[in-house]
Amino acid sequence: MPLSLVGFNYKHTPLALREVLNIPSARLPALLDEVRQACALDELMVLSTCNRVEFYFSAAEGEQASQSILAWMKRGFSGWEGEIERRAVILHDQPAVTHLFRVACSLESMVIGEPQILGQVKESFQIARQQRTVGPYLTGLMQKVFQAAKRVRSETGIARFPVSVSYMAVELAGKIFERLDDKTVMVIGAGDMAELVVAHLKRKGVRKLVITNRTFSNAVALAERVQGSAVPFEEMAGQLAASDIVIASTGAQGHVVDKEMARQAAKSRKGNPIFFIDIAVPRDISPEVGSLSNVYCYDIDALQTAASANLKERESESGKAQAIIDDEMRSFHNAGRARLAVPVIRALREQFNETGNLALEKTFKRLSHLSEPEREAMRALVRSLTNKLLHLPSTRLREMEAEGDGGLFSEALVGLFGLNPDAMDIPAARSGTGNAGEAQGEGSAVENSGEGTVENSVLANVVQFRIPAKP
Fold this sequence. Notes:
This protein has 471 residues and is α/β, with parallel strands linked by helices. It has 3 domains: 4-159 and 315-332, Glutamyl-tRNA reductase, N-terminal domain (Beta Polymerase, domain 2), CATH 3.30.460.30; 165-308, NAD(P)-binding Rossmann-like Domain (Rossmann fold), CATH 3.40.50; 341-462, no CATH class. The chain is 57% helix and 11% strand. It has helices at 15-21, 28-38, 62-76, 81-87, 94-104, 116-130, 136-155, 165-176, 192-203, 216-225, 236-240, 259-268, 303-308, 311-340, 342-366, 372-402, 406-417, 427-430, 436-447, 451-462, and strands at 4-9, 43-48, 52-58, 89-92, 184-188, 208-213, 229-232, 245-248, 274-278, 295-298. The strands form 2 sheets. The chain has a 6-stranded parallel sheet with strand order 7-6-5-8-9-10. The protein has a 4-stranded antiparallel sheet with strand order 2-3-1-4, with helices on both faces. Helix 10 links the parallel strand 6 (208-213) and strand 7 (229-232). Helix 5 (94-104) packs across helix 14 (311-340), helix 14 runs antiparallel to helix 16 and helix 15 runs antiparallel to helix 16. It is elongated and about 110 Å long. 40% of the residues are buried.
């Protein structure tokens, strides 16, 4: 089953549209159900971060499903229809799979090597699992994706330096001022991203650190951990005037700092500049703030310039990471191809068993004197012979499918024996899904059938049969 993607990311989509499309975690479960049903998707996972909103899905008609998703988005975001059409990234099959691997391994991040994205991908997948909008295909694929991401972090130097959006925000603050140890920095927010910002600020030597948050107890807890101070959210406007740098990172759906608040703060500072760094999506700080005198405002897209300086340092490590991704994708597709042989093998076994059972029934009519234990012994003998005859062809066919050469042989078997594998109830095999052990399971049924023990007991009973002479 092929993978498809409809996505919007920081490379192709401006921040204004990304914050409109941003999907809060609380809304994601209902949205998964709605989109899957509205667009007739087999499986669906949605990833929404500050830098991307991406729909990963499988459907019988990937292109048609992609257009359905775009149409659904246009209905939901009136006034943005043209931008949605123009900015959407649509990928199918291998390019979509490659993109998913690269995103989870942080090769598509604004800051290559940043660690947060893997956790965000895992959370998105977990929500989709809980909503049951993913099935065997995406589940098997995501196992390989996570395995690749783990290898990239452990086998390459891509995560050698503590880079992230929060890190780049603090680096930007360091570039704005020659020194930070004598500056007052206010952090708006007390979540994971804010905590990372605070940790980087402390390493940069910041001494005066003020934390504010809508939930004051969270601000107090974070301030205590970093030897800072906390102010109630209601007093934030007054604290702005005392701050040289303000870094905002909340989950609010509207601006927490507007133009008038910034104007009053700048006026109170009597010509001393104030710098706002907004790393939230949707933005916490109104874009109009940057138009004020002695007020400078940087949003998350402004960090791209600083982040690009790190790209050269990581180019060699990115190449190593891509090699790992290629290896894991190869493994996934090889396992998928091997599973394509399963319906043919099962159809062949079904036909052999049916033929054997018909022959047995004819024999039983001639041997009407046989007891039920004797009949069962003959059935076991036929099953054992069927397993022995099909063991090697089954194994070889799976091996050839994994190597990419099995299609012709599968078609030959279907034609020679008049098989109808599509009529069998094997959805995982038809879609090339399930786990890697599924394909092996078919072989195990043949190999571990207890042939020797059954065969010996069968032969012991067969010698007692008396075939009556023809009249």
